[in-house]
Amino acid sequence: MLPKTQNSLISNKELMLKYAHEDCMLSFNLLFKEHNRNMIGYIMYQYGTTEDVAQDIVSQTWEKIIKSKASYKPIAKFRTYLYRILFNTHIDHYRKTRTVQLCSYSFIENSNDFAIDYPNKQFNDILKYEVHLKLSRAIQSLPKQQAVVIKLHYLEGLKVKDIAQITDQSHECAKSRLRYAKKGIKKHLFKSGIDSSIIQYYITEAEDL
C-alpha cells in the first residue's frame, strides 16, 4: 500500500508517474484527496465563483489529467503542472460564460466559515485581521495581470518561475508584474492608513525566484 503523500517518501510526481504508466488508481486517489479541496477553494477565492461552478471547473481539470495521463512528463513540479491545467480550464470556462470576475471581494469580506490552509502563513495571518479588507481592495485596484500574479504568489505560495509556467509568460515578465504589484499594493495600503511597518512586514521587497 502506498503511503500518504504529505511528509512521505513518495512525491506527487512519483504518484502521477505511477498512475500514468501503471494505471494505479490508488496513486490517483491520493493526489485527488490532497489537492481537490484546495483547488475548489482557490477557484472560488481567486475568481469569485460559486462552489458549484468551482467544482465543475476542478472536475474538468481532473478529466483533462486523466485523458492526457499517457503524455505526462515530470519536468515541472506536480503542483505547477496541476495548476496550469486548472488555470487553462478556468480560462476556457470564462470564455464560454463571460461571467466570472477576477475575484469576488464581497465573498472574502462576508465569508466567516470558509477557510483554506494556504501554504503561505503570512497571507493566512492577513486574512484573520481587519487589514485583509484593505488588502483585498488594494489587489482589486491592480491591473488584472498583476492581480493574478500577486495572488498566485501570496495565496498559493508559488515562486516566480512556477507562476510564469502556469500563466504562460516569461520569467522576467512575471517577475516584473510581481514587483509592480507589490509597489501598487504598498501605495494603496499607505493611502488607506495602514502603518508603514505593517505594510513592510506583509509585503516585502525580497524577490522569490
From TrEMBL:
Statement: the UniProt record of this protein carries the keyword Disulfide bond: no
Family classification: Belongs to the sigma-70 factor family. ECF subfamily.
Domain RNA polymerase sigma factor 70 region 4 type residues, every copy: 133-183
Domain of life of the native organism: Bacteria
One Pfam short name: Sigma70_r4_2
Ranges for domain RNA polymerase sigma-70 region: 34-98
Organism per entry: Psychrobacter proteolyticus
Classification via NCBIfam families: sigma70-ECF (TIGR02937)
Keyword line: DNA-binding, Sigma factor, Transcription, Transcription regulation
Protein name in UniProt: Sigma-70 family RNA polymerase sigma factor
Keyword Transport: no
InterPro entries in the cross-refs: RNA_pol_sigma-70-like, RNA_pol_sigma-70_dom, RNA_pol_sigma70_r2, RNA_pol_sigma70_r4_t2, RNA_pol_sigma_r2, RNA_pol_sigma_r3/r4-like, WH-like_DNA-bd_sf
